[in-house]
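Case study B.
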Amino acid sequence: MYGNDFAPPEDGPGGGLLGEVEAAEAALREAAARARRAGPAPDEDVEAYFADVIGADQKIEPRDWMPEAYRRTLIRQIAQHAHSEIIGMQPEGNWISRAPSLKRKAILLAKVQDEAGHGLYLYAAAETLGISRDELVDLLLDGRQKYSSIFNYPTLTWADVGAIGWLVDGAAIVNQVPLCRCSYGPYARAMIRVCKEESFHQRQGYEILHTLAHGTPAQKAMAQDALDRWWYPSLAMFGPPDGDSTHSAQSMAWKIKRFSNDDLRQRFVDMCVGQAEVLGLTIPDPDLRWNDERQAYDYTQPDYAELMRVIKGDGPCNRERMTHRRRAHTDGAWVREAAAAYAAKRADRKKEKVAA
Amino acid sequence: MSLFDFTLGLGDDALVAAQRLGEWTSRAPEMEEDVALANIALDQLGAARLLLTYAGELEGAGRDEDDLAYLRDDREFRNCLLVELPNGDFGVTMAKLFFLAAYQSPLYTALAGCADERLAAVGAKARKESAYHLDHAALWVKRLGDGTDESHRRMQDAVDQVWPYVHELFVPDPAAPVDPATLRADFDATVAAVLDEATLTRPETSWTPGGGRDGVHTEHLSYLLAEMQVLHRAHPGANW
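Model:
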């Protein structure tokens, strides 16, 4: 109820993608209704059965046999997504205390709260694969698992909150909408819910930029500056170009991934151009132009060397983000220990009562 | 105290509480608590917006919620000192929230039945939220008080530190829609039950800091407002 208390712009973003999420949800229900075979036939090996379920576009569920590499890939991907939600709270949380109106403050608080909720939801999805949230949190804190490198860029002005909503959440949705059809049931279902909320966030971010771009000259300059800084890092969110992407082919075969990095990046660019025009802002790419033959926009690739540097830990905020996360974890240890001790005492007292 | 001052005081309590709780975002001891604290901050902010909007109408000078939140200085704020105190550790934050909710919960319940229709509507909405805040904070006070030795020590320190500031909440105001003094018995009963179960004690002290309702605050409020208002004030007259 918070956050969507304004009418979305008719030509605003999110509409088409939200439709795809709904279509994925319908397909999920339909696939569930086509009674999936209860398990492998006695003379059928589990691998053939697994392949059959994938081939029929049905869902693998936690208790099904699955190849170890499939399990590992999913754990890595879902955990990275969960970590991204948790770390992503920092750059946006950075503006809660200074949000320029009470309405914007409420919308931003609700958004960051949603991210914590998405993190929890995704950790729970990963736990269905036989790993605990505590283990995953340790992997993040030890730097052995990654989060989206976009959150290693700073939010310098209020307009950055708008740019994150429009571009970063927009890119995330373009990435995640196909995951609503992922072959692993718990992840697909989690993504449907997450995408619906993300599309609100994207609309809210767009609305922030729209207001700034139609405000005072200083506000408009703030919006343009944010677009200038966030455009290429957002393009880089789709990962390295297809030729250099290590995990893609196998993930496509398993229907974990459904489109290539470059396909999704193109789709994102094509989506943003018209939206930027409505905002009256300029995408910082002099070579951006419509290609009639390809029926798509030609655009300048992001700096992949920069992406690799940021992924390896040398982005503007990597160290701060990790220090912040570790500090919250360490500072909270005494509270978590107290909660565990209190629960244990309560359980003991209950036992004593029953015994007496 | 005029109806305007009364309404403004409650609105400022909620606004400053929301601002402090918002500072916890991404810093909570566990992820569930990040969600819970943001939720409570949102409730407080929601109540603040309703109350400040109404205060602006009562004043009749054309000030809306943002004018009142962003364009007043600390001497013009009417919140109690309790809410502006720094967050401290999680124990201090829970002590502050517990005492605030133990006050706001009977306050909003009483307001829901008061003669002023607008305040009654705010009370009816906020009392349900406040009951949850009280539950949540009471549970943590008990967990920390009766948890480990360290958490007991920290929680007792927190209660000792925050306790003197509750006095200000109940300064009598017989002309107000709800006289705060009438809420004290309810508050004391709630607090005694929870602290007993938490194996915590109330400090013996005769120190009763106050002044918030008259605009005389601690040194902390000015910093809080400086941060909250900086962007809004940097762009006079802009829309957001």
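The two ends of chain B are 34 Å apart (CA to CA). The remaining cases will be described in the next quarterly update.
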